[in-house]
Amino acid sequence: MQTHWSHPLDAFKEAAFTNQKTSLAYRLVRADAVAPSPERIEQVRAICNEGPVYDILFSHIFGGKPYTAEAAAGFLNWAAQGWRERTHFIFLILDAAGGICGNVDIKAPDLEGAEIGYWAAAAHAGIITPALEAVCGLARTAGYKSFFAYVVPHNDRSIRVLERNGFALDKEGVQYKGKTCDLYRRPL
Prior knowledge:
This protein is α+β, with helices and mostly antiparallel strands. Helix content is 34%, strand content 29%.
């Protein structure tokens, strides 16, 4: 379903940033600007099967079974659909060769406040903090007022990413998608 209204993020194409650990260059791009080729589907599948990403985000969804190529293709199609329909905004993180190595997403078009999420390949440690910083800047310019994120309490790496980006703990022990999480918020 196509929507006929515009959203302030419609004009975004891509943003460059550097890995905070390696100083390598990366690009943040709209998911609808990245064709879901077999190579990119495999990149998403591999990342989503990595221990920490799989354990925290997907193990309960897939019941311990591997994240499949079909799920990866579905993710890329859903990500592009979000931009077309203006329902959610997935920003893919590409390395210098154009490979997918992570993502940051804004899960709703609500400018008053939207949930964010992210994941990245272990081989590209150091990309999420600057990528989230870039998305926060874009969102602020687009008129978003605040972001929030749900994090399982033992996910220290994710908590540090949020804290480095100005998020603060709002509530502990919140039930979210069948898990007990802590809620973090950041005004933009």
